[in-house]
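Re: the request from the purification team.
They wanted to know what the chain is likely to look like in 3D before they choose a buffer screen. I agreed to run a prediction and write the result into the notebook, where they can find it.
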Amino acid sequence: MTYETIRFSVEDGVAQIVLARPKQANTVTIAFSEEFNDAVEKCKSDANVRAVLLSSEGPIFSAGGDLAGFAAYGEELPKKMQEMLASFHASLKTLSEMDAPLIVAVSGVAAGAGFSMVLSASMVLASAQARFTVAYTGAGLTPDGSSTFFLPKIVGLRRAEELMLTNRQLSAEEALDWGIVNQLTDETELLEKALKTAKRIAKGPTKAFGNVRRLLVSGFNAELAVQLDREGESIVDMTQTDDGKEGIAAFLEKRQPVFKGQ
């Protein structure tokens, strides 16, 4: 697939997906959703990809859905919306379930579906000028892109509903305080630090990282006995991986492990 709304590359174990429609505020469209999903599927199928870095071009990370485009569909909008969400939601589901962690670098405003992409990440770095808003109900709509799943788990039900009802913007400092962002940095250093973080993650035990993510997500709604069983199955599985064996050997030999993501 030829990409027109994103840029995609893989180097040093890190897949970089860059939102590349800055003049359109990196809004989510059918074309973007299909291209984004295609790139995510490539990440999933490529064993060399051990971390994914999502960033953007321009002053806005993503303003969310392309409301002007939605309006242009007229009576066809419900059908077109379903078409767009089929790809967009598939990509977020894959990113949340695959082994390679997703790191997001946020510059400027992340609104609506843009905010949802941020919430679905494993780690988030943001510039001090970043802003975050749910936005959907301001247009008479309800959230998509996993925000109703992840936001209350990150900030709590009361704060999540407040953000969804009022659509107020969170500052970068508030997002850090509420646990939405892991680290703030200067705008000029954002991408460099995010890439450095992604490269460090890419050298880790990728299969273990994937299982950590899946355990954390499933644990929110599981009974204790069920989650203990899942944890038991996971750690047993990890002892059979090359990285699990290497990690134990490195500990005994008092050296740094060299993980291969296998």
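For the purification team: Residues 206-252 form one domain.
Please add any questions underneath this entry.
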